[in-house]
Amino acid sequence: MKLLIFLGSVRKSTPPKPARLGERVAKACERCLVEHYSEHEIELIDPLDYDLDPVFKPHFAYTQAEVPKQLDDLAAKIKASDGFVMVSPEYNHSMSPALANLLNHFGSSLFGYKPSAIVTYSAGQWGGVRAAVGMRSFLSELGCLPVSAMIHVPKAQDVFIESGDANNAAEQTSWDSYFSRTFNQLIWWAEGASKQREALDPKQLSKDFKRDPSQRNAP
Ligand SMILES: Cc1cc2nc3c(=O)[nH]c(=O)nc-3n(C[C@H](O)[C@H](O)[C@H](O)COP(=O)(O)O)c2cc1C
């Protein structure tokens, strides 16, 4: 399976310290997947690598000839992927605006019929659970339904060092085991959905909505 990990923070300034705690959490996900699920292809997507136009223009709003290469390359990666790990901090009890902004650049035609895993974290004690609740709706609407298990990392600055390894080596196995419950579900669904996409193209059953929001309306 090809899995993309989306890092949800672009915050480089402080306070609050440390900045971009998300790097550690995304790397912890990457490390766990690479080490324990080595038969799968894992790639980390960092929103700071994408020079997005401040005037919002999603991938699907460009003609093929004018679409920026970076955006088109990421669209191709999303299309070729089988599942997604969405890593978000909690900002004001909501998911990261940087993650929402990046994902909003692509339609459900690319994400759809593939599973996702919700990973949230915070510097405080709740681990981003309130952001996670909203992420279920967001990711469901995007078409990449979240698996039931979720990963929440409270006080992430104490849990992981910058490499994504556990700060306390004795706790590494416990964190890997906790992460694995979600990743096992993600990969089970990714494999199942991949086989079913091959057996029956879902777009033959219902076409993508590309023209107008009214395409969603009840008759
Ligand atoms: C704008 C903003 C809002 C925040 N809101 C919350 C919050 O609602 N709940 C929480 O637990 N932490 C909150 N925090 C603290 C974050 O958990 C902490 O700063 C964390 O490091 C953010 O992740 P990042 O460093 O990857 O951006 C907030 C931080 C910022 C900058």
UniProtKB/TrEMBL annotation:
Please report the stretch or stretches of sequence annotated as the NADPH-dependent FMN reductase-like domain. 1-156
* Single GO cellular component term: cytosol
Question: Per its Swiss-Prot or TrEMBL entry, what cofactor is needed?
Answer: FMN
MF terms per GO, please? FMN binding; oxidoreductase activity
One Pfam family cited in the UniProt record for this chain: FMN_red
Q: Which domain of life is it from?
A: Bacteria
Cite the entry's keywords alphabetically: Flavoprotein, FMN
**Region span, Disordered:** 195-219
Which Gene3D superfamilies is this protein grouped with? 3.40.50.360
Among PANTHER family, the record links this protein to: CHROMATE REDUCTASE (PTHR30543), NAD(P)H-DEPENDENT FMN REDUCTASE LOT6 (PTHR30543:SF21)
Name the UniProt record assigns to this protein: NADPH-dependent FMN reductase-like domain-containing protein
This protein's species is: Pseudoalteromonas haloplanktis (Alteromonas haloplanktis)
